[in-house]
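Before relying on records like the one below, remember that each one covers exactly one chain. Contacts with other chains, cofactors or solvent are not represented anywhere in the record.
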Amino acid sequence: MPALVPFEDITHLFGEFQHTAFRLETRRGYATDRAGARFQAFVRGIDPAPELNNAWHVNVREKAAQGGRFSRVRIIDEPPTDGQRFLMASAAANASASGEDIRVLARTEAAHLELPDYDFWLFDSRTLVRFYIDEQDVTTGVEVIDDPADVLAACRARDRAWPLASPSTEVWTRVRSSA
């Protein structure tokens, strides 16, 4: 088993990267989302309200002002799970509140592209942070990886996924209208 650290031990990377922070999200849902009031309201039919001044959006805006870029590809099922629907509904706020570029890719396409089956953040195409998530969708720790072969594999996964992924807000509009 790799040396895992708590997620909190790597949060400094979100403020320290120079150019890009890319996330691949592979899960059908996350325990932290399900435990939150915004998710509970969402399953009752209330869209997530933007949280313009939360720490995440403030940091993304600050990094964007310095030339940094946050982007994500979220793998979704067809039809999307409640957790994936919540993330798509929330993505509009991320984009408008902070400029984060969030896209989605169908799980079948992700399998065809042979994308990893685990979540990660990739900072400046140099530092890989791999998530370890249990069966209940709880992050049990992260592994910080700077091995060139592993980082290159993550860069290649990003580069395969990004051009084929669709803007999350566009997909969310289609999903909402078909529900």
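The chain is about 40% helix and 20% strand.
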